[in-house]
Specification:
Helix content: 25-40%
CATH architecture: 2-Layer Sandwich
Distance between the termini: 37 Å
CATH superfamily: GHMP Kinase, N-terminal domain
Oligomer: single chain
Number of strands: 9
Number of helices: 6
Number of domains: 1
Strand order of the largest sheet: 1-2-3-5-4
Order of helices and strands: EEEEHHHEHEEHEEH
Length: about 240
């Protein structure tokens, strides 16, 4: 029995509220159970120097956790004068995951920055950030298409979900209680067409078999399919 009472293949409840900020070109508040992330998209008619002149667009991301998003207050990284290694790793993951669903030629030479701020954490914050980040990206691109700035839709859905081995069983969408005790956990990032973008798997106190990994992959594909449906419904 999972701590939440969910079946092995059950996702947490998912809700995506769009248009939650006034100024961003795209925004949403995604809730995956008790993990809540605010995602915003900013459009700019410029690209980094290494892209300039290529005709290609660029999508990048920043990630952060608010001081009381967890059980005890975390110090703001700005007061420490630098980002932690975990933060840098996660925002790079978000950026490259979202870029995998973008036709950068069709986007044109412009940059979209996705900001993901964790309001409340209960496991799976990077997965929620990627899933919500794509919604914010979708909304920003919709504005480009509406104004005629671009004529071809450059986006393919991208979503992410965690899976792991908890109490010897493969489970979908780990919350913190499961993630903190799972012998094996992983993050699965896929496009809406089923193509894999990235899989992060690690054994933490237990090993796993090829058969178990295949079962986790099956769970992840089913979970991402549900998330894509939620993304598309939110963007209508």
């Amino acid at each position: 029995m999972r701590p939440s009472g969910r079946d092995l293949s059950d996702m947490r409840s998912v809700s995506i509220e769009t248009g939650v900020t006034k100024h961003a070109e795209g925004s949403c508040l995604i809730k995956m159970g008790d993990t809540h992330v605010l995602c915003t998209a900013t459009l700019e008619d410029r690209v980094p120097p290494f892209v300039k002149g290529s005709g290609l667009g660029w999508v990048t991301a920043e990630y952060g956790m608010l001081p009381r998003s967890t059980g005890s207050r975390m110090r703001r990284e700005a007061t420490a004068g630098k980002q932690g290694g975990r933060t840098v790793e996660i925002q790079r993951l978000i950026g490259r995951s979202l870029r995998a669903g973008v036709d950068r030629v069709a986007l044109g030479e412009r940059q979209i920055t996705i900001d993901c701020d964790v309001i409340q954490a209960d496991g799976g914050t990077r997965c929620a950030s990627i899933t919500g980040g794509w919604v914010a990206l979708r909304l920003a691109v919709n504005k480009l298409m509406k104004t005629g700035a671009i004529s071809t839709d450059p986006l393919t859905p991208v979503a992410a979900v965690s899976c792991g081995i908890y109490a010897g069983q493969p489970v979908l969408d780990l919350d913190y209680a499961e993630d903190s005790e799972a012998g094996v956990d992983g993050n699965f990032i896929l496009r809406g067409d089923g193509q894999l973008i990235e899989v992060q798997m690690s054994a933490e106190g237990a090993t796993f078999s090829r058969d178990q990994m295949n079962k986790l992959m099956d769970l992840a594909e089913a979970g991402v399919s549900q998330l894509v449906q939620a993304q598309l419904a939110a963007c209508k």
